[in-house]
Amino acid sequence: MDFFELTTEPLDIGAIARRVVPPECGAIVTLDGFVRQFTKERETLYLEYEGYEPMALKEMEKLVAQAHEQFAIAHVGIVHRLGKLEIGETSVVISVAAPHRRAAFEACEWLIKELKRTVPIWKKEVYRDGETWAEGGEQ
Predict the structure, then answer these.
(1) Does the pLDDT at position 66 exceed 60?
(2) Do 80 and 6 meet the contact criterion of CB atoms below 8 Å apart?
């Protein structure tokens, strides 16, 4: 039931989250990462995501495997959107199902940090006064 995907289509958070729910689990934690209007007091017009898809999917697969090794979880789903995204649109959904919520929260937080750090997906922020490619890590 694990999955990891890239798409240019809008993301349905609920549908993605429900794909990881097995009967033995009592919790699912879902991160909905979306485009915000202001970044460090600069007004964002939109974002563009690009990725090296074959490598991105391999790295996402590794993250899912590592999450299973480190946390008491059942299933993980990661879907990242590529292309131009407007303010308020979802760019990434990470859902983690676990028998207990603590492990699901911890795994979800670890996954988003590692995804930003290791997966070759790049974000261009387009502002009213220019544009910049964002670095990985805390974005």
Answers:
(1) yes
(2) yes
